[in-house]
Amino acid sequence: MKNLIIDAAKEEVFFSIITNSKSYTTSYINSRENFDKFMEILLAFFKKNKIKLKDIEKIFVNQGPGKLLNIRTSIATAKAIALSKNISLYGFNSKDFDDKDYKKLIKLEKNNLLNKDLIKTQY
Domains (ranges, CATH) in the chain? Predict the structure, then answer.
């Protein structure tokens, strides 16, 4: 099982792939230039780690609160991927955890504590 995590609510744009046995992560400066090419850097992350979109089973995206433009971009991208590839989409909040232990998201999802499909920006 491969899970994609997209978190752009804070000072970095963070991508992570978590599988049953491995995890891959990368981060970028949260800047206008990186949001202009958001999908491009996401696909570069996949290519670098030899992951294909068709291998992703679940997408987790940070709904905020945080930087509005960045959150909107990441949610729109996550929704587009989820709809086009029929992937389950889950929203989480910045307050769900303070550290960057994104494996906690998998536990929250298993306990039905995340928003599914109806992902909205949190201000």
Answer: 2-116 (3.30.420.40)
